[in-house]
């Protein structure tokens, strides 16, 4: 520790260990500085109380490491999670339908939503036409069967 | 409760501490300390990465508020945060009931 107060030492260590956008780093330091000053409640920054508050706060490098990890992850909002989940399950169901269709099962028997049936039929027809070299008009014929 | 045991429950504790309205980090830490009567061995600094993670996950909103000559970042629950809290609270209640059942039956 240098001759700085415990609080200033802590904030300096934190700032040096933070990575990423300058604005974000400044705000992270400002937020934690505010916490420490509020905990001090006007006590001398060089006091024993200040030392205890900094001790209780934790290791600045470890906190910076955890903050860096959070900030470097791609942001996934609940709506984005729900949409990607819905897309993934629709595609998975469609692939299943395509496979079952090749085995002779009817999509209507599976009670799948029309969108899933449509995607499944397109995949199945595309697979078949690719395999036997059928012209692309086969797709429109097959699609006409989808309700 | 020791720090390691707390890790899995920190999100729920933070969400429940904020559910009453927007709060800043220091107030959240104080709320947890007071409500747990000091039994949670939680270093104040550990709440910030968790708060930032919950914010990025869309469970919290944050904004800067000024008052009493201070500028603080405050957090509040989003609708998704309220829903997540309800689910986590239910999971915890089920878990606690299960442990209590085992302790009551086999613990003596």
Describe the structure concisely for a colleague:
Chain A has 147 residues and is an all-alpha fold. Chain A has 7 helices and no strands. Chain A is rod-shaped, with a radius of gyration of 30 Å.
Structure description:
The complex is a heterodimer of chains A (about 150) and B (about 110). By secondary structure, chain A is mainly alpha-helical. In chain A, about 70% of the residues lie in helices and about 0% in strands. Chain A is built from seven helices and no strands. Chain A has helices spanning about 5-15, 20-40, 50-55, 60-70, 80-100, 115-130, 135-145. In chain A, helix 1 (about 5-15) packs parallel to helix 4 and helix 6 (about 115-130) packs antiparallel against helix 7. Chain A is rod-shaped and about 80 Å long. Chain A starts with 5 loop residues before the first helix and ends with a helix. By secondary structure, chain B is α+β, with helices and mostly antiparallel strands. Helices cover about 60% and strands about 15% of the residues of chain B. Chain B is built from five helices and three strands. Chain B has helices spanning about 5, 10-20, 25-35, 45-55, 80-105, and strands spanning about 25, 60-65, 70-75. Chain B has a three-stranded antiparallel beta sheet with strand order 1-3-2. In chain B, a hairpin with a 2-residue loop joins strand 2 and strand 3. Chain B is elongated and about 55 Å long. The interface between A and B is medium-sized, with 27 and 21 residues.
Q: Can you lay out the helices and strands and say which pair or pack?
A:
The complex is a heterodimer of chains A (147) and B (108).
Chain A: H1 6-17, H2 22-40, H3 48-57, H4 60-72, H5 78-102, H6 114-132, H7 137-143
Helix pairs in contact in A: 1-2, 1-4, 5-6, 6-7
Chain B: H1 3-7, H2 10-18, E1 23-24, H3 25-35, H4 47-56, E2 60-67, E3 70-77, H5 79-106
Antiparallel strand pairs in B: 1-3, 2-3
């Amino acid at each position: 520790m240098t001759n700085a107060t415990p609080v200033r030492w802590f904030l300096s260590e934190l700032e040096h260990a933070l990575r990423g956008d300058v604005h974000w780093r400044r705000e992270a330091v400002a937020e934690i500085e505010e916490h420490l000053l509020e905990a001090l409640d006007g006590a001398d920054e060089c006091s024993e109380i200040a030392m205890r508050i900094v001790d209780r706060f934790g290791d600045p490098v470890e906190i910076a490491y955890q903050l860096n990890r959070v900030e470097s992850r791609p942001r996934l909002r609940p709506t984005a999670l729900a949409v990607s989940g819905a897309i993934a399950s629709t595609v998975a169901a469609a692939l299943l339908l395509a496979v079952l269709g090749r085995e002779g099962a009817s999509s209507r028997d599976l009670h799948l939503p029309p969108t899933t049936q449509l995607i499944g039929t397109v995949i199945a027809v595309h697979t078949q036409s690719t395999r036997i070299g059928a012209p692309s008009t086969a797709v429109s014929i097959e699609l006409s069967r989808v309700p | 409760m020791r720090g390691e045991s707390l890790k899995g429950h920190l999100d729920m504790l933070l969400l429940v501490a904020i559910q009453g309205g927007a709060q800043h980090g220091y107030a959240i830490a104080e709320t947890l300390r007071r409500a747990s009567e000091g039994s949670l061995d939680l270093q104040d600094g550990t709440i910030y990465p968790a708060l930032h993670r919950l914010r990025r996950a869309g469970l919290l909103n944050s904004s800067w508020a000024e008052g009493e000559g201070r500028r603080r970042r405050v957090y509040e629950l989003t609708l998704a945060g309220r829903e997540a809290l309800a689910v986590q609270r239910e999971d915890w209640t089920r878990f606690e009931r299960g442990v209590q059942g085992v302790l009551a039956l086999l613990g003596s």
